[in-house]
Amino acid sequence: MNGQSVKWNEDGEALEVMEASGDGAAGVVTKDLLGTTTPSRTLGNLHNVRATYVEVSAAPSGTTSVAVQWLLTDSSVSDQVASYIISWSSEGEDGTDSVDNTYSQYTIMDLVPCTTYTITVQPTDVDSAPLGDPGPASASTATQGVLPVSSVTPTAVPSNSHHLEVSWTLSLDIGRCPGYYKVTWSGKQNGEAGIQGTTSYTITDLDTWTTYNVCVDSGDDADNLFGRPKCEEGTTDEDIPGSPPTDIATTSVTEDSLTVQWGPPQIPNGVIVNYKVTWSPDDGTADTTEMTYKITGLLPCSSYTVSVSAVTSKGNGPSGDTSNSTQPAVPGAPGDVIVAMAVDRSDSLDVTWTQAEAPGKCDITSNIVSWSPSSAGVPLDTMTLDPTESYTITGLDPWTTYLVCVRASTLGGDGPDAPCVNMTTDEDVPGPPQNLNVMGSTTPESITVKWDPPSSPNGVISYYSLTWNPDDPSDNVITNDTTYTLTDLLPCTIYTISVSAATSKGSGDPSNITGATQSATPGAPADMTVTMVLDKSDSLDVTWTQPSSTCDITNNTISWLLSNTGDLVDSETIDATESYTIIGLDPWTTYLVCVSASTLAGEGPEGPCVNQTTDEDVPTDPPENLQVKTATPDSIELQWDSPGNPNGVIINYSIMWSPDNGTVDTPLTTYTLTDLQPCTVYTVDVMASTSKGYGPPADILGITQPGADEG
């Protein structure tokens, strides 16, 4: 059986452990507080059995262990000893263990420091029967050295908010060893205390609900501390608040409510869980977690005192007060409103009512009569009166339905209107029709106008009268509609149109508007001529007479086509005029020329189109397909076709050749050159001509045949 003894090193950070094995050998190792082991030294054999009766000795081997040794006093029974039973006890703690007969020592482990133990060693035989009496001994575990404090726990004392209960633990159990501890605290109060032989302490005379930093250090005495205190914050228990909420004030007042606001108490003495609000004379009460509360359901025009106290888990603190009065309330609506037309006065209405009931103690300070045309919905005017029950409205429009409303007021403001009443004044001549305008698009011959009834009809509209000019005489029509189309008008003409309304009282003032008929497309130009321009084979002169129209002719369009195909060559739109020269035409070409006129309404029809041919010009192209048809020793027969663009009537062809420098004219498209030299190359040019001259030549090489004597 193994045993172990422990003691602290001087620095308090390592352990020296003696370990004994079953063969009696012992060794010493060093262990730090984390359990790391370092071998130190080995001791020799500790037992030597030589006697039969047991003589026991014990001595402390550490703070939690005792080393036990024994000897047999009678060697005659040594061969009977099979084992030894070691027993120990102290203050309710006891233990036992056994070893075989090879042991003469044993270390009792895990004992309480600073404690005296009674120890016995009993030899036994192979049947576990005791041999003789056990050998007694007594020993105490060693005193624990200075141990560092490992943790501190400050705890509030629920029964006393001025106390903190402090407990602490050490790095190891010190058992029954006395110890010295220094407890210090800091916060609103600072203090310290020296504690002997216990690991708890109650700090007193502290502030309620206050956090303190509590530290505990250990040592042999006040002058020999370990020097490594452990600290922890602790907070004393709550109490009822020590002061009322701060800055209690009324922030909002209505006729039936007060809104009160406050700040936290200067001495909360804990967590404020809610606030209690009370008010009188209603004896109302309410709890809230906010620092504002709206008291509702109050009476208008009344003074109230409001008290507010803060509440912790321990109860209510003292209260603070504020006083204020509710606002005046607005009254209800008057009753029995009657509106009647004033006899023989179309601009007046008589109004009567029953006065509204005053709210609470608030007096009716005034009555307000308002009126507006029923169609408007917005009061046209109001009249504020001293408290009364009748009023005559004047200055109204005739035959107009008014919505008349009556309400009462207090210092709190206007109450609601009583049910408003509609009533109509008497008729009169009407005002002018409204919103007279030209409806949609006009045409060249008509204008449609539209209007609304007068804003002040002043009665029932019986008809509308329309006049317009320039017409001679001015036309006049009567209609019951609010639209009318004027017909048989002239295009591009501005008309002034007047519309008036009539009631049984007669016609009122007219509304006027101007409207213009639309532009119409013109007719066709007349008297058109197209003339060849002499010596300008690319031009034609065109003249015409503009069509008659009440609208302005804005432009003319001239177009020209090839007469033989009808294909459009080009067109030109120009500002309004009566002549134009077409240029860029082909010579000696017949064109069909057309002219139209336009107004803002668009283009009118073309007049009768005219064919005309441009003047001649010299041919643009040379004769085509020039070729040598036959050749002899003294002649060359030529043939060709007319130019592709002759630009007139071809009246002649001119033929020139070299090296003879000959020339000849012919109207034909074939010609034979004669009196030529045999075996000779000739360059021949042929040009066509009109009345305007020759065009470009076509050329060819021709070779005469060899003569007879050269054959």
Automatic annotation (TrEMBL):
Region Disordered, annotated ranges: 311-333, 504-524
Ranges of residues in domain Fibronectin type-III: 52-146, 148-239, 244-332, 333-428, 432-524, 526-617, 622-708
Pfam families reported in the protein's UniProt record: fn3
SMART domains attached to this UniProt entry: FN3
GO cellular component terms, A-Z: membrane
Taxonomic superkingdom: Eukaryota
InterPro entries associated with the record: FN3_dom (IPR003961), FN3_sf (IPR036116), Ig-like_fold (IPR013783), RTP_Phos/Ushers (IPR050713)
Transmembrane segments: none
Name of the protein described by the UniProt record: Fibronectin type-III domain-containing protein
